[in-house]
Amino acid sequence: MANQKNPYEILGVPKNASEQDIKRAYRKLALEHHPDKNKGNKESEAKFKEINEANEVLSDSKKRAYYDQTGAMPGDHGGHGGGNPFAGGGNPFGGGGFDVDFGGGGFGDLGDVFESFFNGGQRASSKRKKAGPYRGNDMETTIKLKFDEAVFGTEKELVITKLDRCEKCNGNGAEPESKIITCKTCNGTGELRAIRQTMFGQVATQRPCDMCEGRGKVPERTCTHCQGTGRHKKTDSVKIKIPTGVDTGSTLKVTGRGEAGPLGGENGDLYVQIIVEKSKEFLRDGYDIYTEKEISVPQAVLGCEIPIKTLYGEIKLRIPSGTPSGKMFKLKDYGVQKINSSDRGDHMVKVTVAIPSKLSRKEQELYEALLKEKK
């Protein structure tokens, strides 16, 4: 492959192309130049081989990184000897082609080699199940609620943009009236097998087919609306029920309202993060409510009954005589109703005694008389 063109140019993708972009470009070109569709056409056969070689490099993160760093195809011993660790006879195992990966986690597929060695030179493998449609991605969004909406619950409508199932092909990726056929690249197995020569003999390896992504089936003609992916971007309206008692930091899960999976895969879930506006009247701590009420000196000394505004309306609170400033009173079960429960928190009322800074003449006389009385 020393004289091969740039693999990005072969597949017609930019150097920063995503994994999905590469897969999409490969499938399109492979279908176009597949030998079964171009029987006897040597040029298409050569092009098909070139496409597969380019895809083999770009679909493997390590091989792609090696090419990006050196400009040489992995295994190309000509022209770029300085960049390829096996160039110029640098492979310590010679022409046997022992495939060792020195990057990241150690020796790559060496476990496959030992497995085949201890199984008499023939790798033991069980028939793997074909990959089914992949589940779509979960999504996350944020919603702001008013204080009362969080306390008592409500219903909200969200508008989100996501990858949803294609209406034209109903998610299967094929043009209407076009068939879903057996993948000709893997013959319906959903995987590609390769034989490698190692120091222990031949080793068979397998990986998911790039053409059908492990499903074993492909559309005869890809849907022109979604380019064969089975989904496209769409604005979706979602009504969600907000239960009583949610607070900032609460997360609601809406099952099946995330992104659709490719080629008919089920939808992921939608996670809604809650942010609650603060109240001007109440301070909330978990399911408990806190308020402060000011009373006069005579009320604190003699005792009284004062109105208290709660989440559920106004009630009367009895203040006993001799109540000091800062005294806390509990209104049991007047707090926030707990999520998925009939239980409630409490309402805590802090009483502060107001000391007047200015007195009328009559008040002055009364306080002076009281002071003389106490002497």
Keywords:
single chain, about 375 residues, alpha+beta, Helix Hairpins, HSP40/DNAj peptide-binding domain, 4 domains, 4-stranded mixed sheet, 3-stranded mixed sheet, 8 helices, rod-shaped
Give me a quick take on this structure.
With 375 residues, this protein is of the alpha+beta class. The chain has eight helices and 15 strands. Strand 4 and strand 5 form a beta hairpin.
Q: Which regions contain 5 or more consecutive residues with pLDDT less than 50?
A: 77-128
Largest sheet: 4 strands, mixed
**Amino- and carboxy-terminal Cα gap:** 110 Å
Envelope shape = rod-shaped
Number of strands: 15
CATH superfamily of the largest domain: Urease metallochaperone UreE, N-terminal domain
Q: In DSSP terms, counting alpha (H) and pi (I) runs of 4 or more, how many helices?
A: 8
Question: Percent of residues in helical segments?
Answer: 10-25%
Q: Strand-and-helix sequence, N→C?
A: HHHHHEHEEEEEEEEEEHEEEEH
Strand order of the largest sheet: 10-11-15-14
Q: What is the fold named in CATH at topology level of the largest domain?
A: HSP40/DNAj peptide-binding domain
The residue-averaged pLDDT reads 82
Radius of gyration: 37 Å
Q: Judging by the overall fold, what is the CATH architecture of the largest domain?
A: Sandwich
Q: Which structural class do the helices and strands define?
A: alpha+beta
Given this structure, which CATH class of the largest domain is correct? Mainly Beta
Structure explained in plain terms:
The chain contains eight helices and 15 strands. It is an alpha+beta fold and 375 residues long. It folds into four domains: 90 residues, Orthogonal Bundle (Helix Hairpins), CATH 1.10.287.110; 68 residues, no CATH class; 97 residues, HSP40/DNAj peptide-binding domain (Sandwich); 92 residues, Urease metallochaperone UreE, N-terminal domain (HSP40/DNAj peptide-binding domain). It has a four-stranded mixed sheet with strand order 10-11-15-14. A three-stranded mixed sheet has the order 1-9-8. The longest helix has 17 residues. The protein is rod-shaped and about 120 Å long. 24% of the residues are buried. About 14% of the residues have low confidence.
